[in-house]
TrEMBL record:
<dbReference type="GO" id="GO:0016787">
    <property type="term" value="F:hydrolase activity"/>
</dbReference>
<dbReference type="Pfam" id="PF04909">
    <property type="entry name" value="Amidohydro_2"/>
</dbReference>
<keyword id="KW-0413">Isomerase</keyword>
<dbReference type="GO" id="GO:0016853">
    <property type="term" value="F:isomerase activity"/>
</dbReference>
<dbReference type="InterPro" id="IPR006680">
    <property type="entry name" value="Amidohydro-rel"/>
</dbReference>
<feature type="domain" description="Amidohydrolase-related">
    <location>
        <begin position="20"/>
        <end position="285"/>
    </location>
</feature>
<dbReference type="InterPro" id="IPR032466">
    <property type="entry name" value="Metal_Hydrolase"/>
</dbReference>
<protein>
    <submittedName>
        <fullName>D-galactarolactone isomerase</fullName>
        <ecNumber>5.5.1.-</ecNumber>
    </submittedName>
</protein>
<dbReference type="InterPro" id="IPR052358">
    <property type="entry name" value="Aro_Compnd_Degr_Hydrolases"/>
</dbReference>
<dbReference type="InterPro" id="IPR047874">
    <property type="entry name" value="GLI/LigI"/>
</dbReference>
Amino acid sequence: MLVRTLTGKAPKIKLPRGAVDTQMHMYLPGYPSLPGGPGLPAGALPDPDQYRKLMQWLGIDRVIITQGNAHQRDNSNLVACLDIMGNVARGVGIIDGNTSDAEMVRLSEAGIVGARIMDLPGGAVDLSELETVDAKAAAHGWMLAVQFDGSNILDHEARLENLKSRWVFDHHGKFFSGVTPESDEIAAVKRLIDAGNCWFKFAGVYESSKTGGPDYADVAAVAREIANYAPERIVWGTNWPHNLAREQADYPDDAALTDTVLGWLPDDTARHLALIENPQTLFGLQEWSASTS
């Protein structure tokens, strides 16, 4: 059975107090996987107790819990996790055209601050509902987490440019066809960032890298290019519990992965932005103080 490592030597890059993990998933007993999505993660359920150990190990103080695809459009597990985690956690959930204003208020009161669009197999809400979800999110001050094959970004650029909400391009853009810093697709990312409401998330590098670990050179080159271009628009996430890992050999070393990915940012100032100020702006979080926890 897959066993997650939750303790060990801390990352060499020390995370500042108030650091935010903007991409992870959490699961509780009693919430089975639903039709249309993948199954639950391998091994013991990655629950709040496990994640708190990871927070202590890596130096994370705050977290954005993202609705897992296993639960599709049912936010019940996410709401329960937010209740357990308390004030250090906020959520990104699932809404659609049928989500009422009353439900939006209920979800907001539960700590949900964003909506997820995932236009890939297993996703609950895809790009066909982008404008509908954006309108509801904007009306309630939410952000959007948008994930699709970034190789197609030129086809979607005009729609993305018109989004009313703050939004983040998820998982290093997931350029499955491969790109370089000079590619037209990366120029499109820069244009979207320049539009004023787009951020770029460093998380789940192993899901789209063709060169592979431990350095993920292809994704690293693009990540460095975007981080140098707009350090004020980068956020970071662990992507814990690494749901694609079904065997022990596929499970990453979280401390080493943290060092690798945060090492793509140009300096300590950029890392501080990515870990504190940028997520505060994107997700509408309060400024960090020790009392926040």
